[in-house]
Write a structure and sequence with these properties.
Two copies of one chain form a homodimer.
Chain A (H helix, E strand, L loop, with lengths): L4 H4 L11 H5 L6 H8 L3 H7 L8 H14 L5 H8 L4 E7 L5 H15 L3 E7 L5 H10 L4 E4 L5 H9 L4 E4 L9 E5 L1 H14 L5 E5 L5 H16 L7 E3 L4 H14 L6 E4 L2 H14 L9 E3 L16 E3 L2 H17 L7 E4 L2 E3 L8
Parallel strand pairs in A: 1-2, 1-3, 3-4, 4-5, 5-11, 6-7, 6-8, 8-9
Antiparallel strand pairs in A: 10-12
Helix pairs in contact in A: 3-4, 3-5, 7-14, 10-11, 12-13
The structure holds a DNA duplex (16 and 16 nucleotides).
Chain lengths: 357, 357
DNA sequence: TTGAAAGCGGTACCAA
DNA sequence: TTGGTACCGCTTTCAA
């Protein structure tokens, strides 16, 4: 108790008038302050503020009142230190200016709250630049990590070594079992191609994502595979960066490299699909969907705007966020659980940007 | 040192083979582990890892190697407890599915990194529901708060009482001096009206934001004031919720309540302007800008899409974010600094959605 | 039911 | 330059 001596010497000359500022002298109230004011021990204060602890009604009430009088707020930092639980979850995310990730973040945040976890946000300018960031993540003793960015194997191992569970959001690591929640890219792509083919389309073009996007490549592969199954080969593929501009540029390139312009542009996400539609209408004078059918992927907000009414695969972002947090928190509670991948089906949205059969 | 005894008894039988897992037995490495391995004191470890501390090159190197061998990462939680600096900044934000706030968040995050601060994200479903959230903010001993949501006076006082600096982003409290960074709503609105009037427009309609938005009301007042100065009275005003749907609904309502349809729709933000344009074109068959000029506010990403090419006031979000963090960190370092409001000018973007003079 | 005391993992002061 | 030690504010045994 010696270490508390300095504090115990605070005299309360005017008990009737004592106010928080007088007692504390500008400090924030601690459980010791509350204890002194309530005339109980500090450990009693801690106990009284816990849900199912043993404390008499009388003491509970005294502590409650003293805490209120001092404006006491428990120090989560100190609590975390002793409990080894920060109630912090790191969310690694990038492209907050895209349309997709803000929705993801919003849902992740909502579900984190359900599990009484706070979000420590690491919004990366690009999907790289992680190494320095990762160090900060580890320093903050987060309970878990949600990775909506690419992670190298060594980066993942650095986290695993600290026994911090990781769940990937809409991505995963090839050849390595990891926790992940994904939207079913393969099925989504196959459904879109099937419906487009049934509508009579035969000349396809693909505006794909960058090569280092695992799910993007999966979607591309599934698209081409289904086309082959339907007897359509040599489908031209161009690359984009998931943004509006590269959707527009992609269409121009598709037309440039093909012998004939395509009747369908399969885009890797909605934002590129929107760029593609605008390029078709405003640069090339191609009516959508009359002259060109365009499909996207994601189902972001603007996809429903009257100017676009995108035909797309809507990702069940809410469910995905929920699954992500469940998966993660299960592993926070029980680190022994094996890696698990949850693949949720997307839903086709039959907008007006493509003729479907 | 008695409290460290348990740890000191860890025997190192095979010094040549000792690996992190053997020494630690699954624990995360602490500075004590590093100290023991390096054969120095714990305080020396702490010192060696600080920037400008006094330590011999030899010791530095030994500590560095021991730390690397054990995969040691300093515990930011423990550090925060003693330094009373969490290096955490709470960002209170809502409407992450809007187009504007994700950009804001992205920039805030970038600039927080510059100041070596992490973002503790509180993404609120609605701008209310803060009370419960606020308690969590206070528990985490954040260095400062950035409020991009409405805060009541009592909520602000609860934060001030803990001596945590707050900066409002694009909002403030009436009749109370607070730190705030805002885009110049008044000037922006006046510029738009002036240019529209110069182009010959005389029949205006306003699709405003909700009444409880301080900056929204400021913008509305400035718009109506400038119109009056130009001799235009009885401008119809309808309300919206800053979203796409209420932009569309707003236009319908403007037409319903007015004797003649307006020639200009002044919208409180870009998203409503976009909804308004789509409603004009697809519901009402009104060509934009031939039959109806539409202006927005914000300068969000989609405002530049070919389908809209919005005439709007672009907010200098990067500069605003930078100013926000500067203002905040200045007050973290020096709590005595008086409240300050920084108002940055927006820039008019002459898109194709309105005829300007 | 209550209180004393031992940490959690760092930082920083002070003496050597 | 180095090590010893006293905290930061809480949770959690363990006795009383």
């Amino acid at each position: 108790m010696a270490r508390r001596k300095a504090r115990a010497t605070v005299t309360l000359r005017k008990p009737a008038e004592r106010v928080a500022s007088e007692i504390l002298g500008g400090r924030r109230a601690t459980s010791y302050d509350v204890a002194r004011l309530a005339g109980v021990s500090q450990s009693a204060v801690s106990r009284c503020l816990q849900p199912g602890a043993s404390a008499s009604v009388k003491m509970r009430e005294r502590v409650r009142r003293a805490a209120a009088e001092l404006g006491y707020t428990p120090n989560a930092i100190a609590r975390s230190l002793i409990t080894r639980r920060s109630n912090l979850i790191a969310v690694l995310i990038s492209n907050l200016t895209s349309l997709y990730y803000p929705e993801v973040l919003s849902e992740l945040s909502a579900h984190a709250t359900v599990h009484d976890e706070r979000i420590l946000l690491f919004a990366l300018p690009h999907e790289s630049d992680i190494d320095e960031t990762l160090d900060k993540v580890l320093q903050y003793q987060v309970d878990g990590v949600i990775a909506a960015v690419r992670l190298s194997l060594s980066q993942l191992e650095a986290i695993n070594r600290r026994r911090i569970p990781v769940v990937f959001f809409n991505r995963y690591l090839r050849d390595h079992p990891v926790n992940a929640v994904c939207c079913d890219q393969v099925d989504g792509a196959r459904v879109l191609v099937t419906r487009l083919h049934a509508a009579g389309h035969r000349r396809f073009g693909v505006i794909a994502g960058p090569k280092d996007s695992v799910v993007g490549e999966e979607r591309l592969r599934a698209t081409l595979e289904k086309l082959q199954e339907l007897g359509i080969r040599d489908t031209p593929v161009v690359r984009g960066g998931y943004d509006y501009e590269s959707g527009a540029a992609g269409l121009h390139e598709l037309i440039r490299i093909g012998k004939k312009p395509p009747h369908v542009a399969v885009c890797a996400n909605d934002l590129m699909a929107i760029g593609c539609i605008d390029a078709a209408r405003f640069d090339l004078g191609l009516a959508v969907p009359e002259k060109l059918s365009v499909v996207g992927f994601d189902g972001v907000g603007p996809s429903t705007w009257s100017s676009y009414r995108l035909t797309t695969i809507r990702q069940p972002i809410q469910r995905m966020a929920e699954a992500t947090l469940t998966l993660l928190m299960d592993r926070v509670e029980n680190p022994k659980l094996p890696p698990e991948k949850r693949v949720l089906a997307g839903q086709i949205v039959e907008g007006g940007s493509a003729k479907l059969g």
